[in-house]
UniProtKB/TrEMBL annotation:
GO biological process, one term: carotene catabolic process
Catalyzed reactions: all-trans-beta-carotene + O2 = 2 all-trans-retinal
EC number: 1.13.11.63
Official protein name in the record: Probable beta-carotene 15,15'-dioxygenase
Organism: Halapricum hydrolyticum
Membrane topology: Multi-pass membrane protein
InterPro entries in the record: Blh_diox
Coiled-coil ranges (or none): none
């Protein structure tokens, strides 16, 4: 038996690491959905686009949105007023910039929205690996970047290749929100782009798995990474894209960030106590803590849906000319991308010492 064969171990569904049970939940959820939809495809059963839209909205609004708010809330606790003010100012500035881009060049804005989903899924997942089952098979920064690109790329590249008609339809609707018929100029090239993206992603996938195999140290990190990466690829290849994206973020991304939070048991060194606009949450008075938590929840909800209402008002065609359910999927996809851009750039890359994906 080869040296590498000795290094490879069978991955456990429930890994014996901090947050392992939550990791197992994410794995089981995607595996079950993949099997269910594969069976439905074989049986000739197909969900209508309207039904898929309702599943997406339930997953992205009811299940996933609260977690995104929690990530920022948790990150801004025990920070100075100066940092909190700068953080919020940069956040709002990037939102304004993204909205402006969507009105000026909606196709470029759509490309940025897709890139945001890739960056969020990839880099967020990389930090989960760091603190749970490890990343000792990723020996260099380029290899880590490749791992993030492949994991995040599965969210968009795989559906583009396997569900091109649906992906193109919703892309057109999202552009129509800001410029009706705006995607028509590039639509003839979509089939070529599909094959380029699919082939490019396939090459990156093979490179990631091969390099990881060569660098495997026998700790099980490579096997876990490879198994999860392939699960993501198969999931997005089998599950219809609207359902797949709508349930990926709550059942995989958010669940695994909970696992990361569970695994991180140390407070960041730069944390402060009793400072900042969220200091009430560190009070010894449980009534004040409850009142503060309620206030934060209300303020976050008002800000989020206030921004959505503003975008709805400004957009020439907020539903992209489609029916309510399908139009809302397109609108929410664009809106969530707008607030996800600073989520990644400000919440993590700017705040390198701590950030929403904090790993000590």
């Amino acid at each position: 038996m080869s040296e590498h064969a000795h290094r490879l171990t069978v991955p456990k569904l429930v890994p014996e690491v901090p947050g392992g049970r939550t990791l197992a939940v994410s794995r089981v959820a995607l595996l079950a959905l993949t099997i269910a939809f594969a069976g439905a495809t074989i049986a000739g059963v197909e969900l209508s686009l309207r039904t898929q839209a309702f599943v997406y909205l339930f997953g992205m609004v009811a299940l996933n949105l609260p977690h995104g708010g929690f990530e920022h809330f948790n990150n801004l606790r025990r920070r100075t007023v100066t940092f909190q003010s700068r953080y919020v100012a940069l956040y709002l500035t990037s939102i304004a910039g993204f909205i402006t881009l969507l009105f000026v060049a909606p196709i470029v804005g759509l490309a940025l929205a897709i890139s945001v989903a890739v960056a969020k899924g990839g880099h967020g997942g990389l930090h989960v690996m760091d603190v749970t089952y490890g990343t000792d098979h990723l020996r260099s920064k380029p290899q880590r970047a490749l791992a993030a690109l492949v994991r995040g790329g599965a969210v968009m590249a795989v559906p583009i290749f396997f569900f091109p008609e649906t992906f193109h339809t919703f892309s057109a609707i999202m552009v129509d929100i800001f410029e009706p018929g705006g995607l028509a100029a590039v639509s003839p090239y979509f089939d070529l782009t599909r094959w380029l993206i699919g082939g490019g992603f396939g090459a990156l996938l093979v490179a990631h798995l091969s390099l990881g195999y060569l660098q495997a140290a026998g700790t099980g990190s490579y096997v876990a990474d490879a198994a999860e990466t392939l699960l993501l690829v198969v999931y997005f290849a089998v599950v219809p894209v609207v359902v797949a994206v709508g349930l990926y973020f709550p059942l995989w991304y958010s669940a695994r960030q909970v696992a990361r939070t569970t695994a991180v048991d140390s407070e960041p060194a730069e944390s402060t106590s009793g400072e900042g606009v969220l200091a009430i949450l560190d009070s010894d008075d449980t009534r004040l803590v409850a009142l503060g938590a309620w206030g934060v929840l209300i303020a976050g909800s008002v800000a989020t849906f206030g921004l959505a209402g503003l975008l709805w008002t400004l957009a020439p065609q907020p539903l992209g000319g489609e029916s309510l359910a399908i139009g809302l999927v397109a609108f929410w996809s664009i809106f969530i991308s707008i607030i996800a851009l600073p989520h990644v750039i400000i919440g993590s890359w700017y705040d390198r010492d701590r950030g929403i994906w904090y790993v000590p």
